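Q: Please design a sequence for this.
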């Protein structure tokens, strides 16, 4: 065995497992510099407050990126689902019916993207960027310039509170919903024909088209599915804070993109994958929580998160290039 092949092996391992190394490193760092980081209450806070909603939105983003595109309107789906859910509760609809209305609204956002991308031929970036701008303006119009829509504390149904603050077998309901979505997405990508076709479309759409698989139909379905998944985050967000705040969902978009692309470093082919995305979300969640505990200014927290994303991606890229050289 040549020396070059021998030296390439550790580099390949570093390239593929750089995300895990970074995760262990930041966890260890904050365990030392933030005394309360390892407390049970703080670890639960990371999972419930930092991880859950971002994980759901990031899974939606993963589907869009896996299909060879990107979805800049995941936050719009979150917001529209939240608005529809709040309006349904205020109108006196049963919680399940109001929740279905929210999910349907998220699906409508995804369907709008699907028409632009698959039927008209607009690129996913431009299509979802347009949806983002339209969605932001529509929310301003529906709320008289961006006023929050509050639910009266005395009029909130118990099932609504349960969705945001309830537990099942001592597991918070929001975290349980996120876990179900994560497992479902993993099964779809690894065990079902649809998921494998989406991954193939993201790599070689022309080859998939020649094999008889409907590329446009699969891409359209992927963006509708992304809208529905993101809508779950809108329902949970609303049930947690009992208020709809226009454009609040857009705050998840950039971190969802970061988590998804960080997750690609876990794939030998550099492709989106559920495990990588989840670990990417966990990494960003730990960093956000740890920097908060250290007392850093919010804006410095954003700088730290951005530098971490850049470092993980650059580390993986450099090592992959060294291996292929």
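A: Design:
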């Amino acid at each position: 065995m040549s020396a070059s092949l021998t030296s390439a092996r550790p580099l390949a391992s570093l390239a593929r497992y750089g995300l895990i190394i970074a995760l262990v490193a930041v966890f260890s760092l904050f365990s030392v510099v933030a005394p309360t980081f390892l407390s049970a209450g703080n670890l639960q806070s990371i999972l419930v407050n930092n991880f859950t909603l971002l994980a759901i939105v990031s899974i939606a983003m993963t589907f869009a990126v896996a299909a060879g595109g990107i979805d800049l309107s995941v936050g719009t789906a979150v917001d529209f689902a939240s608005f529809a859910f709040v309006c349904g509760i205020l109108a006196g609809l049963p919680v399940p019916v109001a929740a279905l209305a929210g999910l349907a609204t998220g699906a409508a956002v995804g369907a709008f993207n699907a028409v632009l991308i698959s039927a008209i031929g607009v690129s996913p970036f431009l299509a979802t960027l347009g949806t983002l701008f339209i969605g932001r303006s529509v929310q301003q119009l529906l709320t008289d310039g961006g006023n929050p829509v509050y639910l009266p504390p005395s009029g909130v149904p118990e099932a609504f509170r349960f969705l945001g603050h309830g537990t099942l077998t001592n597991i918070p309901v929001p975290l349980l919903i996120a876990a179900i979505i994560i497992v479902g997405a993993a099964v779809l990508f690894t065990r079902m024909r649809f998921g494998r076709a989406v991954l193939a479309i993201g790599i070689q759409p022309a080859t998939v088209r020649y094999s008889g698989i409907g590329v446009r139909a699969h891409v359209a379905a992927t963006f509708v599915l992304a809208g529905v998944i993101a809508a779950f985050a809108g329902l949970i967000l609303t049930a947690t804070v009992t208020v709809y705040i226009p454009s609040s969902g857009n705050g998840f978009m950039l971190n969802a993109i970061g988590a998804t692309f960080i997750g690609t470093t876990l794939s030998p082919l550099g492709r989106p994958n559920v495990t990588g995305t989840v670990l990417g979300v966990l990494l960003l969640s730990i960093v956000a929580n740890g920097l908060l505990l250290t007392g850093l200014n919010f804006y410095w927290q954003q700088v730290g998160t951005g530098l971490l994303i850049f470092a993980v991606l650059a580390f993986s890229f450099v090592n992959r290039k060294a291996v292929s050289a």
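Q: Thanks. Anything notable?
A: The longest strand covers residues 149-150. The chain is about 75% helix and 0% strand.
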